[in-house]
Specification:
alpha+beta; two-stranded antiparallel ribbon
Length: 106
């Protein structure tokens, strides 16, 4: 069977940073999650995340793959405040995000 998506929700679509992606977008971190889009009205949008940002840590845990952030989201719960460490260009910024309940989750 397929694993259910975590109930806790940030509200971004992302792909892992690869060498070619890093070169194409002149990204500073070699690993992380490249934000492709931010859902309007989502926790990420409220926290000021933008497409093109690179998430490198979730509440102090380094993230470089989808599976790593999914494990962290599964352990979290809606309403929890987490800190995302994000690169925007060469600038490292910290963003506080209040996780929401995934739309459509029971």
């Amino acid at each position: 069977g397929t694993a259910a998506e975590p109930e806790a929700f940030i509200g971004v679509t992302y792909v892992p940073v690869t060498l070619s992606l890093q070169r194409a977008h002149d990204l500073t971190p070699a690993t992380g999650l490249f934000v492709k889009s931010v859902y309007s009205g989502s926790p990420a949008a409220r926290a000021g995340l933008l497409s093109g940002d690179v998430i490198v840590a979730f509440d102090g845990h380094r993230v470089g793959s989808a599976s790593e952030i999914v494990v962290l989201l599964e352990a979290a719960h809606p309403g929890q405040r987490v800190t995302l460490l994000v690169y925007r260009g060469s600038l490292e910024v910290s963003r506080a995000v209040i996780l929401a309940k995934r739309p459509g989750s029971q």
